[in-house]
Each structure stands twice: as structure tokens, then as C-alpha cells.
TrEMBL record:
Organism domain of life: Bacteria
Keywords assigned by UniProt, alphabetized: DNA-binding, Transcription, Transcription regulation
HTH hxlR-type domain ranges (all copies): 11-111
Protein name, UniProt field: Helix-turn-helix transcriptional regulator
Gene3D superfamilies named among the record's database cross-references: Winged helix-like DNA-binding domain superfamily/Winged helix DNA-binding domain
Classification via InterPro entries: HTH_HxlR (IPR002577), WH-like_DNA-bd_sf (IPR036388), WH_DNA-bd_sf (IPR036390)
Family matches, as PROSITE patterns: HTH_HXLR
Length: 111
């Protein structure tokens, strides 16, 4: 059995560091959105939609709202017509990039 400071004995996983991290990035598209924002720095809604196949407009909108609520993504709205909204990773969101990179590396090594 592997010892981990994140998972201790009888502590419910929801009360551990890994549980908290998973609560922020859990969801079918969250890691993909974080990935694309890391690659492109700033993206608009329709750009994200084009890069993430099969995601609906509603799901993308709700997922971006969750990421913004959790302070992983910054939404910047410009007062113009037509409306212009851009998304970028926050400092907190960028701090997840080593985890995403490790997941990518693991996938490349184990597929």
C-alpha cells in the first residue's frame, strides 16, 4: 500500500487535498478547457467550442461559469457590440498546469 499525505486512514476523501483538487477539475470537459487555455493563453467562447468537439453551448457555458466561480479561469467582457468575451487562466488555474502535464505524460507512456 502506498502512503500518501493526501489520503490518511479513515478520513473521507472529500476532506483530503486530492478530494478538493478533484472537486475543482472533476467534469467531462474541465481539463480540456484548462488545457486549451494553457495552449492559447486567451480564447473566446466560440474558439473553445471549436476545439472541444461534441460539447454543447450550454455545457461549455456552465463549465466556464464553474471554472470562473472556482477562480481557475478569468472572464473578461468588453463593452462593445457585438459583445466580446475572452477567457484566460488565472494564477490559480495556471498552478494546475503541472498536474495536467503529468496526466498528459502518463497518458503518453501508458496508452
Amino acid at each position: 500500500m502506498i502512503e500518501s499525505p493526501c489520503i490518511a486512514g479513515d478520513t473521507p476523501i472529500s476532506e483530503t487535498g486530492i478530494g478538493y483538487t478533484l472537486s475543482l477539475i472533476n467534469g467531462r470537459y474541465k481539463i480540456m478547457i484548462l488545457y486549451w487555455l494553457s495552449v492559447n493563453s486567451v480564447m473566446r467562447f466560440n474558439q473553445l467550442k471549436r476545439h472541444i468537439e461534441k460539447i454543447s453551448f450550454k455545457t461549455l457555458s456552465n463549465t466556464l461559469k464553474e471554472l470562473e466561480r472556482d477562480e481557475l479561469v478569468i472572464r473578461k467582457e468588453y463593452p462593445q457590440i457585438p459583445p466580446k468575451v475572452e477567457y484566460r487562466l488565472s494564477m490559480r488555474g495556471r498552478s494546475l498546469l503541472p498536474i495536467i502535464d503529468a496526466m498528459c505524460e502518463w497518458g503518453e507512456n501508458n496508452r
